[in-house]
Amino acid sequence: MKLVSLTLQHFRNHLKSSFEFGGGANVFLGDNGQGKTNVIEAISYLCLTKSFYAAGDSLALAFGEELFEVEGTFLPERGTPSMVRVAYSGGRGEKVFSINKRSIEPFSSVIGRFPVVICSPEHAPITTAGPAERRRFVDFVISQSSAHYFQTLMEYRRVLRQRNKVLSEAKASRKEPGSATGPWDQQLVTLGSSIICKRNEFVTEFHDYIESAYHHLVGLDEQPTMVYEPMVTISQGLQEAHVAEELLSQLEARRIDELRLGATLVGPHRDEFLLTINGLDLRKFASQGQHKTYLVALKLGEFFYLKDRCHETPILLLDDVFSELDRTRAQSLLSYVRELSQTFITSTDPHFFDEALSFGDRDRKFSIRGGAAVEYQPVAAI
Known about the structure:
- By secondary structure, this protein is of the alpha/beta class.
- It is built from eleven helices and 15 strands.
- The protein has a six-stranded antiparallel sheet with strand order 2-1-4-5-6-7, covered by helices on one side.
- Strand 6 (94-99) and strand 7 (102-103) form a beta hairpin.
């Protein structure tokens, strides 16, 4: 899949910017705060219906404007082009997403249709912070490749909110909830067991993708692993019925604690994914460079995982990634990704890319200044 064109209007600091992209590396250069990441963010709107880092759509609306629009044309490996438009009205607080001029609802149905892999400083907490960040990463990858998992996950979160509400009200009133949690208990167990089994399957399959990407970046001296640590005992051939039994048993065992805290303490929302290098916990023992390399390896693993399962090559969005790698690793990564997929890169360093790439039809360079974009035009040889 390739994104062949993009237009932004009143999006962040872009009054109106238009791009025609090449099929290789598309590099956005400029000082900090000029609007480079805004272009990457706009592409995420086309692929995911939302920003990859902003909390709300209103934050992407240019100051003093009523409406932002993002439009782009995707060219799939098979089939016809898709003209995608996202528009948000600040006054009404409404967003519209359309494909080939047909409004799409719900927005969740878009997930996985335009597979994308995003790596930015916003994703650093995946390797450095608490388990919620790693759960979010795993859930996002699986959701892009499995509509069933995504729907199960959304339903689980709804049930979890309702069950937490019952427990919170019981805590506030200092009364037993009685049978009020019963219906939510069963749904939590059924949906939760499905999620746990899928996550377990994912980690088993994903190991080879991480290992291959990490070794490509740094060689064979370091061995990365991802270990799934759910609240239930897991093994090969894990069955949902067994997981459901264990979850139900734990709900009963933790009932007093849940009533005391007013929150659900059992389920896949409490899972951990332990990341290690040579058997050592990444969060406790890894250097800053190892954290960055591991994050990039996770994202490259995500790329190949989605490519194999979505039957479409994802596009890569790399926001300020190369500046945080040493020159050797940066060169290795750039030469690798530009051959894999259409890639969009932001950077403040033009010299590195001028040395590494020959800009033309396939690889293109754009200067971003104050929300205005200018494409570099190579001088024809005489």
